[in-house]
Q: What sequence folds into this?
């Protein structure tokens, strides 16, 4: 069975990428009311590539301004802490994984859009979930796909083809052929990298949030789950979501979301797609 080989491979993957661990620290500091722009800049500056990309984005059309920014402190003043930590996490995550047959642009547009949408849904239910974990979990929810793509390219390509040609659910084909799903693979790697559980849980349960027993995390997992499905149904999929997935009506109701609002919710995300594209162009590889 591939499962053992896959788990062994993940176990042999080195430590967490530097840019990712620096970014998690930036995320933590940017949420701490006692920290300052100086403190945060000092951490970002440890990674020159990250620094360069943050400055590029702060000067991009998204945050159009006549004045050119040359320092991280100015970038933080322009972006604000919330936007800064989202940008830093997005850059770090995009740059921490490779892709082989998986389409880079499609994959990351789907992930960034899912992250934005999960936050948007959370705003609609009165911000009951932890926004930072939600955004990071949204970005990372499908990384197991990239791990399988990188280390088991030929086999995983077959899994992918079977799922798309026969219109089977990707997770079912993964279970059948590999004995493990991309959700479990992602969770396994991120846990190994000691990423906090309120993030890894969202990755592990993004296709089955109702199985997560921890109530606080289950709420976030449901938001990522819905965001993922909405993106797939709108064609913002990572190459795997070719077929419309069904909603669990009870999850909508449980969260207090109105299905009739879905058009409005989608419109707000579509506005963000352009930002996501720009983020990928300037912050990606
Ligand atoms: Fe997935
Ligand atoms: Fe997804």
A:
């Amino acid at each position: 069975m591939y499962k053992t080989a896959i788990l062994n491979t993940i176990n042999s993957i080195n430590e967490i990428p530097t840019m990712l661990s620096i970014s998690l620290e930036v995320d933590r500091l940017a949420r701490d009311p006692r920290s300052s722009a100086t403190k945060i800049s000092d951490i970002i500056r440890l990674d020159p590539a990250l620094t360069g990309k943050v400055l590029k984005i702060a000067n991009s059309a998204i945050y159009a301004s006549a004045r050119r920014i040359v320092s991280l402190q100015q970038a933080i003043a322009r972006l604000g802490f919330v936007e800064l930590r989202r940008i830093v996490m997005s850059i770090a995550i995009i740059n921490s994984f490779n892709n082989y047959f998986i389409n880079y642009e499609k994959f990351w547009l789907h992930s960034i859009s899912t992250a934005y949408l999960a936050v948007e849904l959370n705003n609609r239910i009165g911000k009951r979930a932890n926004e930072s974990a939600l955004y990071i979990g949204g970005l990372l929810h499908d990384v197991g796909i990239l791990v399988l793509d990188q280390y088991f390219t030929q086999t995983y390509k077959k899994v992918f083809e079977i799922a798309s040609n026969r219109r089977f659910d990707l997770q079912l084909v993964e279970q059948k052929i590999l004995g493990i799903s991309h959700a479990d693979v992602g969770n396994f790697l991120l846990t190994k990298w000691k990423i906090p559980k309120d993030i890894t849980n969202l990755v592990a349960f993004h296709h089955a949030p109702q199985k997560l027993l921890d109530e606080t995390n289950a709420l976030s997992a449901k938001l990522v789950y819905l965001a993922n499905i909405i993106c797939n149904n709108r064609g913002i999929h990572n190459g795997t979501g070719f077929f419309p997935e069904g909603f669990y009506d009870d999850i909508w109701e449980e969260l207090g979301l109105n299905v009739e609002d879905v058009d409005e919710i989608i419109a707000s995300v579509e506005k963000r797609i352009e930002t996501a594209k720009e983020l990928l162009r300037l912050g990606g590889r």
Summary: The chain has a mean pLDDT of 92. The chain has 15 helices and no strands. Residues 110, 114, 141-142, 228, 238 surround fe (ii) ion (ligand 2) (CB under 6 Å).
